[in-house]
Every structure is written in structure tokens, then in C-alpha cells.
Design a protein that fits this description.
This protein is mainly α and 121 residues long. It is 71% helix and 8% strand. A two-stranded antiparallel sheet has the order 1-2. The longest helix has 29 residues. It starts with a helix and ends with a strand.
Length: 121
């Protein structure tokens, strides 16, 4: 079921969600200071492309919180709102609820990517 869910996800929105993370990573990597942010974006692009069967665990310390504030100002709010709205659209139908939940997971990750780790179920 994970494979089928991931394939359907990729076709019906995951491709664009993953591209947004890759695009953000490329923009961040233009400067030397932004490289840690870009690396986080590339790490989470794999989750955005294939989210079924993966979970996100949050942790981190003061440095992660500080990095999340900077991320939130430049890219986080826009990505979180977009993923949240798309998730709401998917949840209109019963069949779309699993896809909506994945978009909500990515929306939360868009707000706080630092200190987060991807773990497999």
C-alpha cells in the first residue's frame, strides 16, 4: 500500500511539493551562509516526493530554534500555507484524506525543518 500511495501521491501533487523543496534548496545554496538551509531542503525533498511510510520526529536545541526562525521569515510561512491549503482541498473527499494528511505533515515540516529527522515506519 505504501508503494501505491507514493505513486499516486507523486502523480497528484507530490511532484510539485518536492520541486518546491528542491527550488528552495537551490535558492538557499546560492550563498555560502545559506548552504545549511539548502541541505535541509534537499533532505526533506525526498519526503515531499515519497511521504507514505515515513514519519518526522522533532527535536533540536537553541541552534535549531534560531535556524527555524530565519527559515520561517524567508520560506517557511509561504510553503506551510500552500501545503496546508492543498491538504484542505484533498480532505474534501473521503478518498483524499490520506493525501491531505501527508500535505499537513509537510506543512508542519515547512514551519520547523531544523531539528527534524525523517524516520521510516
Amino acid at each position: 500500500m505504501r508503494f501505491l500511495g507514493n505513486v499516486l501521491w507523486f502523480v497528484f501533487g507530490g511532484f510539485f511539493s518536492g520541486l518546491s523543496w528542491v527550488f528552495s534548496g537551490v535558492i538557499w545554496c546560492i550563498t555560502i551562509i545559506g548552504i545549511p538551509y539548502g541541505r535541509q531542503c534537499f533532505k526533506f525533498a525526498s519526503l515531499a516526493f515519497w511521504p507514505f511510510g515515513k514519519e518526522v520526529e522533532y527535536g533540536g536545541g537553541v541552534a535549531s530554534a534560531l535556524a527555524n526562525v530565519i527559515w520561517l521569515i524567508f520560506f517557511g510561512i509561504e510553503m506551510a500555507i500552500a501545503n496546508f491549503l492543498i491538504g484542505c482541498l484533498w480532505c474534501i473527499t473521503i478518498v483524499g484524506i490520506p493525501f491531505g494528511k501527508q500535505f499537513f505533515k509537510i506543512a508542519k515540516l515547512s514551519l520547523m525543518p531544523f531539528g527534524a529527522e525523517i524516520v521510516k515506519d
